[in-house]
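Work package 3, deliverable 3.1, input record:
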Amino acid sequence: MPSPRGGKVLWLVQAVSGLALVALLGLHFVAQHYVAQGGLRTYADVQAYLASPVIWALEALFLVVVAVHAALGLRSVALDLGLSARATGWVNAGVTLLAALTIGYGLWLMARVGGVGS
Amino acid sequence: MSHTTRTVHLRVFRYKAGDAAPHYDTFAVTVTPRTTLLEALQAIRREHDPSLTLRHSCHHASCGTCGMRVNGQEVLACVTPLHDLGDLVTVEPLQNAPLISDLVVDMAPFYATFAQAGMPLVRASDNEAGSQPAAGIETLTRFESCLECGLCVSACPVVATDPRYLGPAAMAAAWRVVQEPRGADPAQVLAWVDQEHGCWRCHLAFECSSVCPNDVQPGQAIAALRQRLVLGEPAPPRPAARVEAPSALPPTAQRRGLAAWFDPRGRDVGYWAFVFHRLTGLGLVLYLALHLWVLRLLARGPQAWDAFLALARSPLFLALDVLLLFGVLFHGLNGVRVALVGLGVAAGRHKSLFWALMGLLIVALLVGAWGLVAAVHP
């Protein structure tokens, strides 16, 4: 559970991850919808796309950043509701687990479809 | 002048200790262009119902005691003309404070936060003509401009839901201590606001600044506190007496809760930016979950994924993609504003920044939507 001082650190992480998402999500959106022929990538296109180690790393970074940003956002909404310390602890554990599962699942999927940046 | 008088119906919130629930009474009052809400309420007491309870003193926006809500917006009754407010005007007490009777709330918890901020309720006299700012002070705008009316606390969407949030008035007072300590220890004040339910809980709706009758700008003060905490010297360890932030308001306070987030009456642009930022944020989290669920088809191989693509290129999916693009653009662009303003950058021009970014949103949405359609149907 974050310390009472955690507010500053978590707010900064939220802000910096948000600013990073402007670039990373923009790249993801353009790559998947505007550059891809037909507006979406076929299975073979996805494999070819993820074969690049640079792209793989950028998509993995995007996954981590978006999961952290979303988890902190959910936590912020929950804490606005004036939760008790016990409930806040559950929220912290819940969003941490959610972010970890999201990152784990996403990396597994990327590795299965495109290898590990091979 | 008789031809400029008109009849206004005041729908007034009523509650007395022991009542099962509040109700509203409607009174017809004759007003001129100069009749204030306070004068109309006093006329109701004289001519219709002497049991109507309200608080006031100076009649010229100096004492800050006649704060209430008119058609949902926090105002000082003594300087609020009734003539142009329509035929039916709803008058209610301030929110987020314990209700005592009718339009009177208990201000004691609100006043108590000033002492915690290191700024007890002692006001100095106004600045004298020709006086110069002290070294390190940009202007002579002093926190002593605060009337302690409580309008900002009533309007704050976070106070409405989080009972431990310190609130805009106390943190504006804290910023004044940091800005001009006058013997106080600013480090202790910084340590007090540097907590989850302190300045980091604020979501920069700036409704506090919008309703402030004396231009204290608590929202900008909170942004300045954050800037100091991020860029300034580290705050000292929290004093033992302040480890647990005392609740700014007791649980009996007339707190609106989540309903306050969606009450459109009398709110300014920053408030709506806050509400839509929340809604688009929650929507994008839902989309992320749905997106990951759909991507499981990739794990099933090319047949499953390529079959889904045919569906994803349908007009309905394209429309949903444009909706997604709007959500992403709003959350992203307003998020840039929140990050910048939250660190004290352009806090005084947060509205202009918002509208500039919304202009960018419209351009990006049009270009992006056209690009989506063109990519699928070249």
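Chain B touches chain A through 55 residues (CB under 8 Å).
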